[in-house]
Specification:
The structure holds two protein chains of two kinds. By secondary structure, chain A is mainly alpha-helical. Chain A folds into two domains: 58 residues, Ribosomal Protein L9, domain 1 (3-Layer(aba) Sandwich); 87 residues, Up-down Bundle (Methane Monooxygenase Hydroxylase, Chain G, domain 1), CATH 1.20.58.2050. In chain A, 45% of the residues lie in helices and 10% in strands. In chain A, strands 4-1-5 form a three-stranded antiparallel β-sheet, with helices on one face. In chain A, strands 2-3 form a two-stranded antiparallel ribbon. The longest helix of chain A is centred in the middle third of the chain and has 23 residues. Chain B is mainly α. Chain B has one domain: Methane Monooxygenase Hydroxylase, Chain G, domain 1, CATH 1.20.58.1020. In chain B, the strands form two sheets. A three-stranded antiparallel β-sheet of chain B has the order 4-1-5. Chain B has a two-stranded antiparallel ribbon with strand order 2-3. In chain B, β2 and β3 form a beta hairpin. In chain B, α2 runs parallel beside α4 and α3 runs parallel beside α5. Classes of the chains: A mainly alpha, B mainly alpha. Chains A and B meet through α6 and α7 of A and α1, α5, α6 and α7 of B. Chain A: This is GINS subunit domain-containing protein. Chain A: Pfam families: PSF3_N, Sld5. Chain A: It is found in: Nucleus. Chain A: Its main location: nucleus. Chain A: One of its GO terms (cellular component) is GINS complex.
Chain lengths: 184, 208
């Protein structure tokens, strides 16, 4: 609850996870097309994480591993973490993963730092060295957390370069440049 | 600037760092006679023609702009010293001791006192080279760091400032991941707390 008001935290919990209901639940529908007004035990659906977590705590549903942490993604991360397009899989990969790990699969907890360590180095080099136009493709692979890192590095580098190139230290007020009209 | 979206990590702009660098003392040789100046930060002068005086850089630059003095190049900015420092920077992993504000001071002097610097182009390219070597070193250091202790000696104000936002965020991320890795069970216990009341009756029911 410490991040209650944080927008990134809220958005991270909006990610959908596949769940399997462990209990029959009356009065709700997961599918508009069904006639039944209840959910059968063992039915599968996708729910936002915040809802799935509450159901999981009450042991009404079990959470299975969502697509962004499936075996295929893991293999890709192990092959070359820096090149995996995590943003299209889940923009809040780390945030979401760390929330999810204790509930469904603890190995996700090991995957996150592993992926981050490798991707961190890539961000470090790309953000500090590559010229802005050339780096246009790389940031599209980054998750939200990584983007904030990347942008922090780029903007402080840009600010430094701007300062070093110099320029007028004192800005002239626009009014000063005008010529005074002769009083009539 | 970079920190604006995140209020917890406030940043200095390069201009602010430059402003702080202007408090460093420099030696000037005035060419006018003037009584001592009394400021909140101290008293400077009296100034006599051809007699060297110690003043803050901002005052030196102000006098210089009015053509009232020449600035003596600081010791560390001599070609011999810079060449030595550059070689040492290239040879070792550690940062060589240089003034905390060396980037800012050198830039200010290049901009405003170029006629007082003998071998201006040489000095300028040496400072640039040193800065590049050191920045590269900063990057390789950043590559290695994790949430453990980080000790880098002799980094300068501008070098720290350029990586401030990035390093802060990166350390936070490392810290977060490392903690999760070590203590997933406590996290889980915390998450489960609200569940305990609903959990208990069920267990009681089972044996019946």
């Amino acid at each position: 609850m410490e991040n209650y008001n944080e927008i990134d935290d809220i958005l991270a919990e909006e990610e959908f996870v596949p769940v399997v209901f462990q209990k029959a639940i009356n009065g709700v529908k997961i599918d508009e097309s069904t006639e039944k007004g209840y959910i059968e035990q063992g039915s599968k659906t996708e729910l936002p994480f915040w809802l799935a977590r509450e159901l999981h705590m009450r042991q009404a549903a079990s959470i299975s591993v969502p697509a962004c942490f499936n075996q295929k993604t893991r293999l890709e991360i192990q092959a070359d973490a820096a090149c995996v397009d995590l943003r299209s899989r889940c923009p809040y990969f780390y945030e979401f993963g760390s929330k999810l790990a204790p509930l469904c699969d603890k190995t996700i907890g090991l995957l996150l730092p592993y992926a981050f360590r490798i991707r961190y180095k890539e961000i470090l080099h790309k953000a500090h060295t590559i010229a802005f136009a050339a780096a246009s493709k790389f940031p599209t692979l980054l998750t939200t957390e990584e983007t904030s890192l990347y942008e922090a590095a780029q903007s402080s580098m840009a600010a430094f370069k701007k300062w070093r190139a110099g320029g007028p230290r004192l800005q002239r007020a626009s009014i000063l440049g005008r010529k005074r009209k002769p009083a009539e | 600037m970079a920190g604006q979206s995140d209020s917890t990590m406030s940043l200095f702009s390069s201009e602010e760092i430059e402003f702080m660098a202007e408090d460093e003392m420099t030696e000037i040789v005035p060419n006018l006679r003037m009584d001592s100046l009394n400021f909140i930060c101290g008293d400077y002068g009296p100034f006599l023609p051809q007699l060297a005086a110690q003043v803050p850089l901002w005052l030196a630059l102000a006098l210089k702009k009015r053509g009232k003095c020449t600035i003596r190049l600081p010791q560390w900015m001599s070609v011999e010293n810079l060449t030595r420092v550059l070689e040492a920077e290239r040879d070792s992993h550690a940062f060589q001791p240089l003034p905390f504000h060396y980037i800012e001071i050198s830039r200010l002097l290049f901009d405003h006192a170029r006629e007082d610097i003998p071998d201006m182009y040489m000095v300028r390219s040496l400072v640039e080279d040193i800065r590049d070597v050191r920045f590269h070193k900063v990057e390789t250091n950043l590559e290695k760091f994790t949430a453990s202790t980080v000790t880098w000696k002799n980094m300068s104000a501008m070098e720290v400032n350029v990586i401030r936002a990035f390093a802060g965020r990166a350390l936070q991320a490392f810290y977060k991941h490392d903690n999760e890795q070590q203590t997933p069970d406590t996290d889980r216990a915390l998450d489960k707390q609200p569940q305990i009341p609903t959990d208990r009756p069920k267990r009681n029911l089972k044996p019946r």
